[in-house]
């Protein structure tokens, strides 16, 4: 223990410094910068570089990382920045200052010169440098050809990856918090102070609940910044990415922030972390019936089928939703087809409903079986008719049955 | 200073006109035009930066009143911004125009405008309509535009790669196939981005993409630009992609071969290991496993040889290339083309004999093999009517490419018990292929005389320069160049391999090379022999030592 005490002293200084980061960023976005001169700016950028240096030093050391992360979170009203933000500090600060019109000319000039690498430094540029950013922006413009491929568009995917990255970071830090509390608890156990033990356990559970609620609130707030269809697209893309395996994605932000995959606990954490992240996204999605209904109308049916195949909660809710919509159709003998009965409640037409069930049946075998079982149950409940025109579920089953045969024939 | 400013000034209007033209037209033609001008534009921007960097904003604008217009327009052209280092230089130019103490409203406005441009380049932009919401969202997550665009570009690349690859598999499904014009457009848009590492998977996929049509779908600007970047080692591509590039675009292959030759001429040929390394790095020997590529490279080498009047360096390079090509060919596990595909117009048994690697055969069989080659060659050259000079040259070139056998022949003459005439004939043919005026026959006669003389001295332990005087005189006294080369070759071998030769070797060679013009030939012979010894392991340490000493002396001189 005396060893730890000896190490604690300089660490405490570092923790104190790290606490300043949110304030620094806040100031850089505010009108307070109008009093800055070139020297102040230099100092601010030096701080940013120092924070980046801390990141590079501590990223492979989980305990120190968590300590820094915890201190950082404590110093913010709403926990926006975590340990990885230290690595991104020069860009965060630099871009915030660049966009801040209150920055006086002299400081601005100094800023712009510091942001860019000196010319003639050669092509081996810092991957976190800003020239690369300008180049990539141009690349995004050039490659934005009309898309012929299926699946979410690249912009949605990029936003989804960043969202996932952030949520993972949250999960990791929450786990870190847990470990810290556990550690404290074990310490208490050793000293056999039972009352304190109970208190700590309670704190742990309370912490978990608070974390979950807090995260959900935060997620809601973040997604509200996007127009709803886009938010749905991002969440759908994120859920799809989670199931496409670790190989297809990059942990953390794109420039080599492979947090957690280096340490052995990191790997176990990340499997559980994925669960948590998915759970959080699903609770956002399924928690509000209107929202979920809008989501299902917005996202293409094939994509929904993919998600239903991988997330059982979503599958259940989706089937329930489709059931509800199906009930609003009635058979019109004059037209010889199913039509919407009450126009304000019915969302889907017969064709659309059929298409959705067909998509579900083109999914994985468990999904197909679950869908057919659900339809069969509904048919039974509706009178178990085997003739067309009496129960929408009977007719759906017949259509779906045919198309399943068809798809088998084409061998897809 | 005045000189410096006139150069970019001359082109200023030109580039401004170009920038205006590019801004207005969005056709494929104008895009191709941008791509063609990107390297020169980058150079111009660099010169511009060098000119204005010490001037200060006010003076710079006085000298180049249109600079704002130019830079502004260029900043909105994604081809320009995406290219290599243009964005860097452009941003530095903007920095130079930013005043730290604006004196008047105009300067304030200029500052504000520059900041907007920089923001446009680096963060929130008006290029895309939905970017405003995206940037708020990204900030709320705690990320910057740097993170976003990093992911975005990678995703776009993956999306395009998937589309192209799937289309290859669905080759028969016409409805889903991508049109040739789309692939062509993709290749043009990639031109500025070739050196961006994120794009490498897309470059690879494009190079390996084969649509249905027989015409080339990829734009030539793209293929040229990829080749340039590859030759300058600015990008690294998998071998299959490079081979595909060369197979579909002949100018690129030609450029690559000429580039290799330039590289090799510029380095001092100190050791063939170095030469072999450079050649192997170029990927040309490996690519030559495709007969079409082999034949073209061979043609280029032939021309190079003729243009340089057959200098020994070029011949040595060709010989090393051929060895490496054979190595790659023999290591090839997938479908191998028959030898006939590479040497279609030649007598196949001769080709097969030449292609046999010396190290595949036990040394005791070498003389037999050389005799076999010589007999076949003699039959082709003398008995059948090889009328034209071109045909003769072709045969000569074939044999010359396989230098190992020629060198071994000359060695075997002295070291082993051989029938000298076929071997001498082979060497005479190599050094003097033409025979209209009986030059080759004459050379043969000279060589026989020298050989007989040297064989008498071969086992003498103590030789002095005087003993070899007669032989040396044969070398230095003759007029005819090809005689000289052959006799020098024999004499040098004698000095290296005979018991008494090594003591006087240095003196003798010095003497010969002083008088005649054969130092290059001798030098090349020595490095070729050294290279062969390194690979096979010559047992005679004395010879190896002597050779290294001789080479050292040579490198000091040459």
Please tell me about this protein's structure.
- The complex is a heterodimer of chains A (412) and B (558).
- In chain A, helix 6 packs antiparallel against helix 7.
- The longest helix of chain A is centred in the middle third of the chain and has 38 residues, at 154-191.
- By secondary structure, chain A is mainly α.
- Chain A is built from 18 helices and two strands.
- The longest helix of chain B has 25 residues, at 28-52.
- In chain B, helix 11 (200-207) packs across helix 13 (239-248) and helix 24 (420-431) packs across helix 25.
- Among the domains of chain B are: 12-122, no CATH class; 148-162 and 180-248; 435-557.
- The two termini of chain B are 42 Å apart.
- Chain B is built from 30 helices and no strands.
- The interface between A and B is large, with 65 and 75 residues.
Largest sheet of chain A: 2 strands, antiparallel
From the N-terminal CA to the C-terminal CA of chain B, the straight-line distance is 42 Å
Largest interface: A-B, 65 and 75 residues
Shape of chain B: elongated
Average pLDDT level of chain A: 80
Number of strands of chain B: 0
Shape of chain A: globular
Can you summarize the main beta sheet of chain B? none
Radius of gyration of chain B equals 32 Å
Please identify the structural class of chain A as seen in this structure. Answer: mainly alpha
Helix-strand pattern of chain B, N to C?
HHHHHHHHHHHHHHHHHHHHHHHHHHHHHH
List the helices and strands and how they pair.
The complex is a heterodimer of chains A (412) and B (558).
Chain A: H1 2-18, H2 21-29, H3 38-58, H4 62-74, H5 83-87, H6 89-99, H7 105-115, H8 130-142, H9 154-191, H10 194-224, H11 228-243, H12 264-286, H13 289-298, H14 301-310, H15 312-327, E1 329-332, E2 337-340, H16 350-361, H17 365-381, H18 392-410
Antiparallel strand pairs in A: 1-2
Helix pairs in contact in A: 1-4, 2-6, 3-6, 3-7, 6-7, 9-10, 9-11, 9-12, 10-12, 11-14, 14-15, 14-16, 16-18, 17-18
Chain B: H1 2-24, H2 28-52, H3 57-63, H4 67-75, H5 78-82, H6 86-97, H7 105-122, H8 131-141, H9 145-169, H10 180-190, H11 200-207, H12 220-231, H13 239-248, H14 250-266, H15 272-281, H16 284-287, H17 291-307, H18 312-331, H19 339-342, H20 348-355, H21 366-383, H22 389-401, H23 403-415, H24 420-431, H25 439-457, H26 469-477, H27 481-497, H28 501-515, H29 519-536, H30 541-557
């Amino acid at each position: 223990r005396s060893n730890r005490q000896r190490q604690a002293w300089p660490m405490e200084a570092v923790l104190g410094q790290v606490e300043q980061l949110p304030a620094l960023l806040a100031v850089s976005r505010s009108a307070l910068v109008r009093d800055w001169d070139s020297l102040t700016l230099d100092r601010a950028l030096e701080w940013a570089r120092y924070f980046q240096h801390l990141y590079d030093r501590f990223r492979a050391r989980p305990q120190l990382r968590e300590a820094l992360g915890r201190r950082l979170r404590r110093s913010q009203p709403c926990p926006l920045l975590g340990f990885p933000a230290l690595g991104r500090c020069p860009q965060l600060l630099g871009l915030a200052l660049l966009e801040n019109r209150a920055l006086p000319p002299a400081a601005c000039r100094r800023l712009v010169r510091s942001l860019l690498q000196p010319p003639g430094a050669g092509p081996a540029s810092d991957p976190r440098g800003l020239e690369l950013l300008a180049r990539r922006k141009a690349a995004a413009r050039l490659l934005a050809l009309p898309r012929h491929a299926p699946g979410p568009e690249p912009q949605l995917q990029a936003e989804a990856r960043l969202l996932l990255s952030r949520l993972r970071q949250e999960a990791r830090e929450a786990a870190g918090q847990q470990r810290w509390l556990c550690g404290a608890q074990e310490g208490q156990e050793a000293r056999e102070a039972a009352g304190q033990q109970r208190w700590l356990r309670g704190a742990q559970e309370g912490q978990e609940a608070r974390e979950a609620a807090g995260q959900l609130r935060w997620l809601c707030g973040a997604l509200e910044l996007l127009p709803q269809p886009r938010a749905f697209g991002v969440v759908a893309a994120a859920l799809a990415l989670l199931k496409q395996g670790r190989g297809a994605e990059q942990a953390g932000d794109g420039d080599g922030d492979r947090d957690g995959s280096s340490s052995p606990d990191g790997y176990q954490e990340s499997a559980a972390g994925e669960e948590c992240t998915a759970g959080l996204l699903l609770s956002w999605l399924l928690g509000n019936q209107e929202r979920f209904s809008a989501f299902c109308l917005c996202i293409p049916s094939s994509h929904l089928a993919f998600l239903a195949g991988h997330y059982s909660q979503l599958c259940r809710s989706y089937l329930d939703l489709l059931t509800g919509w199906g009930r609003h159709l009635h058979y019109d003998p004059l037209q010889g087809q199913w039509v919407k009965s009450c126009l304000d409640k019915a969302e889907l037409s017969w064709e659309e409903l059929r298409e959705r069930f067909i998509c579900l049946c083109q999914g994985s075998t468990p999904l197909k079986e679950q869908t057919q079982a659900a339809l069969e149950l509904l048919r039974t409940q509706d009178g178990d008719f085997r003739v067309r025109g009496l129960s929408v579920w009977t007719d759906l089953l017949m259509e779906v049955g045919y198309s399943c045969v068809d798809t088998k024939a084409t061998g897809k | 200073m005045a000189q410096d400013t006139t150069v970019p000034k001359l082109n200023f209007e030109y580039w401004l006109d170009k920038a205006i033209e590019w801004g207005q037209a969005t056709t494929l033609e104008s895009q191709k035009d941008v791509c063609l001008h990107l390297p020169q534009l980058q150079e111009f921007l660099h010169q511009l930066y060098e000119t204005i960097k010490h001037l200060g904003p006010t003076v710079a604008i006085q000298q180049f009143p249109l600079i704002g217009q130019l830079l502004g327009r260029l900043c909105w052209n994604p081809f320009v911004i995406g290219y290599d280092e243009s964005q860097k230089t452009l941003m530095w130019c903007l920095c130079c125009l930013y005043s730290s103490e604006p004196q008047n409203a105009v300067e304030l406005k200029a500052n504000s405008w520059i900041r907007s441009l920089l923001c446009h380049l680096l963060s929130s932009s008006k290029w895309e309509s939905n970017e405003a919401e995206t940037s708020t969202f990204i900030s709320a997550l705690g990320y910057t535009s740097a993170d976003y665009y990093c992911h975005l570009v990678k995703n776009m690349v993956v999306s395009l790669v998937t589309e192209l690859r799937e289309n290859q598999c669905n080759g028969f499904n016409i409805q889903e196939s991508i049109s040739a014009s789309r692939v062509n457009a993709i290749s043009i848009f990639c031109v500025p981005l070739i050196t961006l590492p994120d794009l490498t998977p897309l470059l690879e996929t494009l190079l390996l993409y084969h649509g249905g049509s027989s015409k080339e779908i990829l734009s030539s600007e793209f293929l040229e630009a990829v080749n340039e970047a590859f030759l300058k080692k600015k990008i690294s591509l998998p071998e299959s992609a490079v081979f595909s590039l060369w197979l579909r675009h002949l100018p690129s292959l030609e450029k690559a071969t000429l580039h290799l030759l330039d590289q090799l001429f510029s380095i001092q040929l100190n050791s063939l290991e170095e030469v072999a390394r450079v050649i192997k790095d170029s990927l040309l020997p490996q690519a030559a496993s495709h007969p079409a590529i082999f034949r073209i490279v061979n043609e280029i080498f032939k021309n190079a040889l003729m243009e340089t009047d057959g200098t020994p360096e070029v011949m040595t390079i060709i010989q090393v290339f051929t060895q490496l090509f054979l190595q790659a060919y023999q290591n090839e596990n997938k479908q191998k083309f028959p030898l006939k595909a590479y040497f279609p117009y030649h007598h196949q048994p001769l080709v097969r004999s030449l292609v046999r690697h010396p190290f595949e055969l036990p040394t005791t069989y070498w003389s037999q093999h050389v005799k076999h080659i010589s007999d076949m060659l003699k039959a082709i050259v003398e008995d059948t009517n090889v009328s034209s000079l071109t045909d003769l040259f072709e045969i000569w070139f074939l044999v010359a490419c396989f230098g190992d056998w020629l060198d071994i022949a000359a060695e075997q003459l002295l070291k082993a018990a051989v029938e000298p005439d076929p071997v001498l004939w082979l060497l005479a043919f190599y050094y003097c292929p033409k025979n209209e005026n009986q030059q080759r026959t004459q050379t043969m006669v000279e060589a026989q005389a020298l050989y007989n003389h040297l064989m008498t001295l071969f086992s003498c332990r103590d030789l002095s320069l005087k003993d070899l005087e007669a032989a040396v005189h044969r070398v230095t006294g003759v007029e005819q160049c090809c005689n000289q080369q052959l006799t020098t070759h024999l004499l040098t071998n004698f000095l290296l391999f005979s018991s008494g030769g090594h003591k006087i070797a240095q003196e003798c060679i010095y003497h010969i090379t002083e008088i005649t013009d054969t130092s290059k030939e001798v030098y090349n012979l020595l490095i070729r022999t050294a290279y062969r010894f390194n690979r096979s392991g010559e047992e005679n340490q004395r010879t190896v030592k002597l050779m290294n000493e001789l080479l050292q002396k040579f490198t000091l001189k040459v």
